[in-house]
UniProtKB/TrEMBL annotation:
It holds the Pfam family Glyco_hydro_2_C. It comes from the Bacteria. It comes from Cohnella pontilimi. InterPro entries: Beta-gal/glucu_dom_sf, Galactose-bd-like_sf, GH, GH2_Domain-Containing, Glyco_hydro_2_cat, Glyco_hydro_2_N, Ig-like_fold, Ig-like_GH2. This is Glycoside hydrolase family 2. Residues 294-584 form the Glycoside hydrolase family 2 catalytic domain.
Length: 588
């Protein structure tokens, strides 16, 4: 159950090249509480005071440091040998995620900088390297407690509180190198169209203007090892588009070739770039042929209604916090979610490792991709949030498992959106900007309540019993969607000036049941036994499923997270109740 070019631990599994080097592992590390490093030119000859295991942040035990106190400036250094036979190649340094501002030097020379804690970025470091020798990579990470910074569930106070946890500072996903030619693919945007039975490739090619000869690009598409199509075109400019007809007798019935949770079929595609007759770049990728649409108050997958049984997933681990401890740990989470009868996950306040999305693609788990929130409305917050969100939409676009974009949640960062026209316009703007990049997926502008423009009406409610849920929702749909009454006793479904347009309605947070404990909290009264837990869980789940106008739900949550102990699993992934019991209720 992998794609043809799958490489374990490869950090970018949708755009695979063979010639790469993983730079995770031991790095030199130093705190810079006085922010003196740049003035004292640490970048020219960096010496650490600690050793740190990348990609784990200093706050985690897995890093080897495990200091949870906030430090706003930290430095990393690593010596990397660049082989002599790499001369003539371009060397690209990739960071999958660094929180929050990264400044990178190579052999003391600035190579680039990036702002944003969740988007991947890279630099061409070729001009700064000595081939056939050791080279020094130095990174300074700058973080803050500012609530204008997209931070998600990271605390901005000294201690954890409510549902906010230990902050993440510095490198928290894989660092790696790859060796490429001057002429190479920069990206391919892959758009399926099941109604026309075609796939569109939007190419970005580097080095076209510098090419000494003719450039030609081929796309070789296969399905389960069988050839489908081979399409080539001449490259005469950096950005080109080609549509590929996927109708082929060897594939069998078209519907059996589509991607869905029941049959997560993936097409493999190999992109080969030629300069004259010489191969200068070879990239392996994949795609799924699937369609997400909305009609008559229903969400459709491949033109048929899909009932979404989602579970909230914050993606924290005991020893490594936001960083997955391994690729196998990601697979284990997905397998347990599927085992419990869920067909999707709402990845909450976190942009997850690309390998997680890969395995959702492979295993058929639906994903709602949600941005990490700011918590203060300010011009700086608007700029930082919008820039990083658009980076993320572009980077995650090709994953068939992602079926919904969620830029805002529960009015976080837009706390007065109910009546504030500026905050309303921000959510409208982000909605339309997202649609300009991806018109094919639903966008939810404020998951939970106080929606402006939104393709799905999503409501959060932690009512404790099924009877209580039915009392609130069974006969009150019209009153809720018209803002005559609140959806959960304290928040309205829509911001003022906006109204219901027949969107699908889902309950996208509920439950949060916790066992009796003095070490943390859940939603509502804590339970004392498995029987009490399952009775409450079943009552809530069946009540939601009994209402025809609700077309899906999202239970809170997969695992405990630090002081929040309302997971179906503990933080170290031990089931609290038999998983088959949860499955029976979800599928019953």
């Amino acid at each position: 159950m992998t794609t043809a070019a799958y490489i374990k631990d490869y950090p970018r599994p949708q755009f695979v090249r063979e010639n790469w080097l993983n730079l995770n592992g031991e790095w030199d590390f130093r705190f810079d509480d006085l922010n003196a490093g740049e003035m004292e030119k640490w970048q020219e000859k960096f010496e650490g005071t600690h050793k740190i295991t990348v990609p784990y942040t200093y706050e985690t035990k897995a890093s080897g440091i495990g200091i949870e106190e906030f430090h706003s400036q930290v430095w990393y250094g690593k010596t990397v040998h660049i082989p002599k036979d790499a001369a003539g190649k371009r060397v690209i340094l990739h960071f999958q995620a660094v929180d929050y501002i990264a400044k990178v030097w190579v052999n003391g020379v600035m190579a680039g900088s990036h702002q944003g804690g969740y988007a991947a970025f890279s630099f061409d470091i070729t001009p700064y390297l000595v081939f056939g020798a050791d080279n020094r990579i130095t990174l300074k990470a700058e973080d803050s407690n500012s609530c204008t910074q997209p931070r998600g569930k990271q605390r901005w106070t000294k201690d954890n509180f409510e549902c906010f946890y230990v902050q993440t500072t510095g490198i928290w996903q894989t660092v790696w190198l790859e060796y490429v030619e001057e002429q190479r693919l920069q990206s391919v945007k892959i758009t399926p169209d099941i109604d026309r039975q075609i796939v569109r490739f939007d190419y970005e090619v580097d080095g076209v203007e510098e090419a000494a000869g003719d450039l030609r690009l081929e796309a070789i598409v296969t399905l389960k090892g069988k050839p489908v199509k081979r399409v080539g075109l001449a490259i005469d400019r950096p950005c080109l588009t080609v549509e590929v007809d996927l109708v082929h007798e060897a594939n069998g019935p078209w519907k059996k070739c589509l991607w869905s949770p029941q049959n997560p079929n993936l097409y493999d595609v190999e992109f080969v770039l030629y300069a004259e007759d010489r191969v200068v770049d070879r990239v392996h990728s994949y795609f799924g042929m699937r369609k997400i649409s909305i009609e008559k108050g229903k969400v459709l997958l491949n033109n048929a209604p899909v009932y979404q049984r989602l579970i909230l997933d914050q993606g924290y681990w005991t020893e490594s916090h936001l960083t997955p401890p391994s690729e196998d740990a990601l697979i284990e989470d997905i397998d347990k979610i599927l085992e419990m009868g869920y067909n999707g996950v709402r990845k909450h306040m976190k942009i997850e490792d690309a390998r997680f999305l890969y395995w959702c693609d492979v295993k058929g788990l639906l994903v709602w991709s949600e941005m990490a929130a700011t918590f203060e409305f300010h011009d700086r917050a608007v700029e930082a949030f919008t820039k990083e969100w658009l980076e993320i939409v572009r980077q995650q676009y090709n994953h068939p498992s992602i079926i919904t974009w969620v830029p805002f949640n529960e009015s976080w960062g837009v706390s007065t959106i109910l009546r504030d026209s500026r905050q309303q316009k921000l959510t409208e703007g982000v909605y339309h900007l997202t649609k300009s990049i991806d018109p094919h997926r639903p966008v939810i502008t404020n998951d939970g309540w106080e929606h402006t423009v939104s393709d799905i009406l999503t409501l959060h409610d932690y009512v404790q019993t099924g009877d209580g849920f039915l009392k609130r929702y069974s006969d009150n749909k019209d009153a809720i969607v018209s803002n005559e009454t609140t959806c959960n006793q304290w928040k309205y479904a829509f911001a003022e000036g906006y109204g219901y347009r027949g969107q699908p309605i889902m309950i996208t947070e509920f439950g949060g049941i916790a066992y009796q404990s003095d070490k943390g909290w859940g939603y509502g009264r804590q339970v004392e036994s498995d029987e009490e837990f399952l009775t409450r869980f079943e009552g809530l789940t069946r009540a939601i499923k009994s209402l025809d106008y609700i077309c899906g739900y999202c239970y809170t949550q997969v695992t405990d997270v630090q002081q929040e102990i309302n997971g179906l699993l503990t933080e170290d992934r031990k089931p609290k109740v038999p998983l088959e019991k949860i499955r029976e209720i979800n599928l019953g």
